[in-house]
Amino acid sequence: MTSNEVEALIASGREDVQFIDVRELAEYREGHIKAVRLIPLSQLEVRHDEIDRNQETVMICRSGNRSRQACEFLASHGHLKLHNMTGGMLNWQGKTIRDES
Questions:
Q1: Which residues are catalytic?
Q2: Pairing of strands 37-38, 17-21
Q3: 63: CATH
Q4: pTM of the full predicted structure?
Q5: Domain-embedded: residue 50
Q6: Rounded to an integer, what distance in angstroms lies between the CA atom of residue 55 and that of residue 87?
Q7: For residue 68, is it within any domain?
Q8: What range defines the domain where residue 69 resides?
Q9: Is the pLDDT of residue 32 over 70?
């Protein structure tokens, strides 16, 4: 799924889609998409149950590599409706939020 498709999906306001950022906290704080929840790839093995396996899920990272790995991991744990945002945040043209904390 391209970053433009993800941006359109977020703008649609659909509540049946979850967006997960798998970058590390420091990367996330530098700039993230408002509608996206952070679960770093390094924590995914112990936190994957926080992600609803029956809901459509879009995985996001910096370049698309870690989010692809996250999709593969989640698929091996029964998640079926997975999308990787190709090109990651490097291709994102929409607004981002920066955390100062």
A1: 61
A2: parallel
A3: 3.40.250.10
A4: 0.94
A5: yes
A6: 23
A7: yes
A8: 3-90
A9: yes
